[in-house]
Every structure is written in structure tokens, then in C-alpha cells.
Amino acid sequence: MTATKQLIRVGHSPDPDDAFMFFALAKDRIETGDFTFEHELVDIETLNRRAFTGELELTAISLHAYAYLADKYMICSCGASMGDKYGPMVVAPRQYSIADLKSLTIAVPGTLTTAYLALRMCLGLDFKHVVVPFDEILNVAERGEFEGQQVDAGLCIHEGQLTFGDQNLKLAVDLGQWWFDETGLPLPLGANGIRKDLGAETITEVNRLLKESIQYGLAHREEALAYALQFGRGLDNRKADEFVGMYVNDWTIDFGERGREAVRQLLKRGYEAGVIEQLVEPEFVD
Fold first, then answer.
1. DSSP state at residue 15
2. First to last CA, the chain
3. Helix (H, G, I), strand (E, B) or coil at 65
4. Residue 16: phi, psi to the nearest 5?
5. Is the Cα torsion angle 98, 145, 231, 59 positive or negative in sign?
6. Is 286 a residue whose pLDDT tops 80?
7. Of the listed 12, 64, 129, 158, which one is catalytic?
8. How far apart are alpha carbons 50 and 45 in whole angstroms?
9. Structural domain boundaries of the chain?
10. What mean pLDDT value characterizes the chain?
11. How far apart are CA 77 and CA 256, in angstroms?
């Protein structure tokens, strides 16, 4: 009699770097033993909100959102999205300084995203903003309005960091570079949270399988890129490869001590800035 496998429901964003990470699991390229994985592709802000109910066993989450989810989820030691001197960008049809941005209305991809947290810290205040689906940010910034509301700039994440110039938008601030200048550390944007109530044995094994999936993609880059490209929203092969390289790399295989320190600093500085309500010490899967 065949034993029933444990179902692990996985949520991740429909973008090339997450698709690349999960390629081997999604396409049965690795042996998953006692587990079967069911994938849902959902934008990151929706995943952040859903994580409050603990619905998914394994989910991509913003590290800003993690500050409110530490009672339910641990951070997998692999699967990080880190911006090393690059990251979310504020772009606009005209050139703005950081000082200018403080009085403008900015389209953001969600208030639980790390991009929003970083911009709050950068500007030193709760700027005027409107929440827009992440894949509409560039269009809204170019158009200058969203649902009748004036928008002066957009906070872009994902592949918009490579394509904003195609829409004649100009860079106001790269938050990954700003963060590095402030801390000397990479900007930790996203992670994979695994539900604590699964127990130590399951947590360890699922973390291992996620790492194996990432390593498989890196070892079979052409095949994994072909899969990831379908989530590229207009990226050609070269730009898709560049984007995946930005966010699936050594940091993704393991946070390492420097990456873990970056998470601690993000949560600490976010708390000190008054954006995060309580100081949280991150808990990583060993």
C-alpha cells in the first residue's frame, strides 16, 4: 500500500526569479520523497496578506511582512531575494531628488512590501502613496494617474528595475544602493517563510528540497530560464537572464551570516524608524 504524501502548498510571485527558484519542484525535476508540492502563483502583497492566516505551508513573503508573521513562520535559510547595491527603484517621467519625493504621491506595490519599508526609511516620513498592482506601477507612473488620482512617481519591483527606461521614466533613487550606503549590507527584500507548526523534521526537509530546487535551476540554467521567461512580462532572453542573476545567486542558496545580519538590521532600523511596531529577532531554519 502506497503511503500518502504530505501536501505542501507553496505560494510565490509570478515573476522570473521566483519561477526560476521553484522550477525543479514545479516540473518534478527532483525527487521529493514524502512530500508533494502544490504551487500557487500570486503577487507578493497578496501573499503577505494571506500569510496572516497561515494558509500556506511554504510561502514567499516580504521581509517587512515577516515582522508581523514571526509567530507563524520561520525564514528558510535558502530562497532569499537580496539586492546587493541594487533593489526597488522610484522612477518618474521627470528627474526628482530624494528631497522632492517627500512631497509627491508615489504608486507602491503594497504597504507590507520591503520596498515600501525601505522607502519609508529613506524618506524619513510616511509619504503620500497609492497602492497599485506591482505589474502596473510603470504604466501608472508613465501615465501620471491611477483611478483618477494623480501619481507623480512609482516604486517599481521585479523586472521593472530593468525596463523602466523603455517607458521614458527616470530614476530618482535605487533603494538597494541607498541601503548599502547606509549600512554596507545588501538589502534583504524577500524570503520563503515556512510554517512553524509543521515541526522540526518537516521544516528541515522542506528547506532542503527548496535548496535542491534552487541548485538544480542554477545547474540547468538554460532549461530553468526557458521556464522562467514565461513570467517575464516582456523581457527578452538576455534581460530575463540578467534579472534572474540579480535575485537568484549565492545569497539565494544560503543567507549566510552577512545576509542574516542584513535581515536583523532591516527589522531593527524599521522598528527604530517607527514603521515596524515591535522589534523582531528573525528566526531562520538551521
1. S
2. 34
3. helix
4. -60, -40
5. positive
6. yes
7. 158
8. 9
9. 6-82+187-272, 89-183
10. 95
11. 8
- The rounded distance, in Å, linking the Cα atoms of 95 and 172 is 6
* CB of 118 closer than 8 Å to CB of 81: no
Find, among 67, 66, 3, the residue nearest to 36 by Cα. Answer: 3
- Where would I find the beta strands (DSSP E) of 88-210? 89-92, 105-108, 128-131, 145-146, 149-150, 153-156, 170-174, 187-195
158 is catalytic: yes
C-alpha cell at 43: 503577487
Cell of 53: 492566516
Residue 1 has pLDDT above 70, yes or no: no
If you compute the radius of gyration of the chain from its CA atoms, what whole number of angstroms results?
18
For the packed helices 200-219 and 16-26, what is the interaxial angle rounded to 10 degrees?
110
pLDDT tens, residue by residue, 244-255: 899 999 999 999
Residue with cell 507563524: 72
Decide: residue 215, CB within 10 A, 0-12 exposed, 13-18 middle, 19+ buried.
middle
* pLDDT tens-digit readout, 177-215: 999 999 999 999 999 999 999 999 999 999 999 999 999
Q: Which CATH class is domain 89-183?
A: alpha beta
What is the topology classification, in CATH, of domain 6-82+187-272?
Answer: D-Maltodextrin-Binding Protein; domain 2 (3.40.190)
Q: Do domains 6-82+187-272 and 89-183 have the same CATH topology?
A: yes
Strands 187-195 and 58-62: antiparallel
Q: Contact at 8 Å (CB) between 40 and 171?
A: no
Q: Closest by alpha carbon to 105, among 156, 167, 154?
A: 154
At 100, the amino acid letter reads D
Q: Residue 132 CB: number of other CB atoms within 10 A?
A: 23
Identify the residue whose cell numbers are 518534478.
28
Measured from the Cβ of residue 43, the count of other Cβ atoms closer than 10 Å reads 19
